[in-house]
Design brief:
The complex is a heterodimer of chains A (328) and B (248).
Chain A lengths: L9 H20 L2 H27 L7 H14 L8 H23 L4 H20 L10 E2 L14 H23 L2 H18 L4 H27 L1 E2 L6 H14 L5 H18 L3 E2 L2 E2 L4 H15 L3 H16 L1
Antiparallel strand pairs in A: 1-2, 3-4
Helix pairs in contact in A: 1-6, 2-6, 2-8, 2-9, 2-10, 3-4, 3-8, 4-8, 7-8, 9-10, 9-12, 10-11
Chain B lengths: L2 E12 L2 E12 L3 E5 L6 H9 L6 E6 L2 E2 L5 H6 L2 E4 L11 H10 L16 H13 L15 H14 L4 E5 L7 H14 L4 E5 L3 H7 L2 E6 L2 E6 L1 H6 L1 H11 L1
Parallel strand pairs in B: 3-8, 3-9, 6-7, 7-8
Antiparallel strand pairs in B: 1-2, 1-4, 4-5, 9-10
The chains are: A mainly alpha (328), B alpha/beta (248).
Chain lengths: 328, 248
């Protein structure tokens, strides 16, 4: 089993810092349309980071992570009355907590399974949640629910696209800093140990079930934070948010960027979304509309990345210093 | 002398096969109890039963006065039993230090903390440092565990076990695959840690076994055919025909 790229080499730290700086100044140059698009990418980056805690750090391959993303979005939709805005300050924590609680309950059942069974069971639970909302008119049914008003924050106005952008950026930074901290905490080290050798972790006295359940719940709550922001931004939730595609996209983002260090998840989310737009815009050649088949190109691209850069886009950058150290 | 572990009438059946059948064994502080026998005799299965990796079909295990039969491996580990593995079982991508630190951390109340640096806990670091020093790996602390030599990995295996501060140690072929010099160092290490622990040693290296063991149990086909002092075992006709004779 190969090590994750947990400690980012200097060059990569510089890339990450530069990228974050670019995000900070981007709205000064881009139009509102692009600011909105980048804000959406940042929301997905938070979602991808939350999955990375399971996938990259703990080694839990969850294919149902979107359930928690969608649940928190729905929480905002239900909490927002038809005629007025609702306060951000209690609905955001509540929505994230609800997603975390759902993850705790589902996690209680799924975390005791391993490998392929874990993948199947997380997917099955997410599908259950999906159909619960899809088939129930009370829960909005297949059409979903409108969120008529963005949450009100008092101090600042989230209806302003620029303000929303910077609020999302602040959340992205906060979650990134938090997860990096967790990664090197005693708890994070236990999670990494579980990924590498759970059997040995138990033999040295760790009750791995509890740790995995805590990671699953925390990841669910953070996915909920992203889902809440998504619902606030788009003003609309539907069952697709918890669908299989959403879970699979998040997984592709993490794999694309590089697992286990959260920076990769951010880069993967941006790269994935950018490529998605790019593939969709491909021209028609004769009767074949290339853009329509974007999923095919995306699939091919992911396969290429997995074959030629198994540690993701971040892993590519890491190649050189690694060789240098193995020579001495 | 204190008796720290006693297993009585342990049996493990896999379908129709009794891998371990009616085995009783006792481990005392400051003594090494070696278990020998040909391949497939059930030595590793016995180790797995005592460590909680396998649940016995019947029989009972007492650890420091508590009935631990059927306990999970992590619970037995926390009750003071540490084990090493026949096949090296470490965290390959981590540094040597992180392997031992993680083991030491398991005995502290802080593993569930989220926001402090794992490396900042002085008590865990001290404990890990002592185990590393004892196993003679201090020089290698920053090496990646997957890249150190086989013998060093075996030492690391012991260091991790020691870092959890066990009173009972189960060592499953600690000398397996070692060169002569490495094996000698390992024997020295085991002698050094012997006074503070009750040890069960599963080993094929007869020189090491007769150097280290205070008591010997011989297993064949899942059953104990003889148990006693090394001198008595040497004389035992059953053992000679079943096992020692073949080796010589």
């Amino acid at each position: 089993m190969k090590a994750n790229l947990e400690t980012l080499p200097r060059a990569l730290q510089a890339v990450v810092a530069l990228g974050l700086f670019a995000l900070a100044v981007f709205p000064l140059f881009g139009t509102d349309f692009y600011a909105q698009m980048v804000a959406r990418m940042m929301i997905l980056a938070i979602f991808a980071m939350s999955l990375d805690l399971l996938l990259g750090v703990t080694g839990l391959v969850s294919l149902g992570h979107a359930a928690f993303f969608g649940l928190a979005g729905y929480a905002l939709a239900f909490l927002t009355p038809a005629g007025e805005a609702v306060s951000l300050w209690w609905t955001l924590p509540l929505a994230a907590a609800a997603a975390g609680l759902a993850a705790l309950i589902i996690g209680f059942f799924v975390v005791r399974t391993h490998g392929i069974y874990f993948i199947m069971v997380t997917m099955a639970f997410a599908q259950m949640v999906f159909f619960l909302f899809f088939d129930n008119k009370v829960l909005g049914g297949s059409d979903g629910i409108y969120v008529n008003f963005k949450p009100s924050a008092g101090l600042f106005d989230l209806d302003n696209k620029l303000v929303f952008y910077y609020f999302t950026l602040a959340m992205l930074l906060l979650v990134y800093a938090f997860l990096r901290r967790v990664l090197f905490s005693p708890f994070g080290r236990v999670l990494a140990g579980i990924r590498i050798n759970e059997h040995r972790m138990r033999a040295i006295g760790y009750s791995t079930f509890g740790y995995k359940l805590a990671a699953f719940s925390l990841a669910g709550a953070l996915a909920g934070l992203a889902g809440y922001l998504w619902a606030a931004q788009s003003g609309f939730v539907n069952p697709e948010l918890m669908g299989f595609q959403m879970s699979a996209h998040a997984m592709m983002m993490v794999i694309l960027g590089g697992m286990g260090n959260f920076a990769g998840a951010i880069i993967g989310a941006f790269a994935f979304e950018y490529l998605l737009e790019w593939f969709k815009d491909l021209p028609a050649i004769g009767a074949v509309h290339l853009g329509k088949h974007w999923q095919l190109w995306m699939g091919l691209f992911i396969v290429l990345v997995v074959v030629f850069a198994p540690r993701g886009l971040l892993g590519l950058a890491e190649r050189r210093p690694r060789k240098a150290t193995s020579d001495d | 002398m204190t008796e720290l572990l006693r297993a009585v009438g342990l049996t493990k059946r896999f379908g129709g096969l009794a891998a371990v059948s009616e085995v009783s064994i006792d481990l005392w502080q400051g003594r090494i109890h070696a278990v020998i026998g040909p391949n497939g005799a059930g030595k590793s299965t016995l180790t797995n039963l005592l460590s909680g990796d396998l649940a016995p079909t019947s029989g009972a295990i007492m650890l420091a006065g508590h009935d631990v039969t059927g306990w999970s491996p992590e619970r037995i580990s926390r009750a003071g039993l540490g084990r090493s593995y026949q096949k090296t079982n470490i965290f390959h991508p981590f540094t040597v230090w992180e392997n031992v630190r993680l083991a030491a951390q398991s005995r502290r109340p802080h593993p569930a903390r989220w926001l402090q640096l794992a490396s900042s806990f002085v008590d865990t670091n001290e404990r890990a440092g002592e185990a590393l020093e004892l196993a003679g790996l201090t020089q290698r602390r920053d090496a990646i565990a997957g890249t150190i030599s086989h013998g060093e990995q075996r030492q690391l295996e012991i260091a991790m076990t020691l870092a959890t501060g066990p009173r009972v140690l189960l060592l499953d072929e600690p000398l397996a695959g070692m060169g002569h010099a490495e094996a000698e160092r390992m024997v020295e290490l085991l002698l050094k840690i012997k006074p503070g622990h009750a040890m069960m040693l599963v080993e094929h290296d007869m020189d090491a076994v007769f150097t280290l063991a205070d008591q010997l149990t011989v297993m064949v086909n899942g059953q104990v055919i003889a148990s006693g002092t090394p001198a008595a075992i040497r004389e035992d006709a059953n053992v000679q025909s079943a096992y020692l004779g073949e080796e010589a």
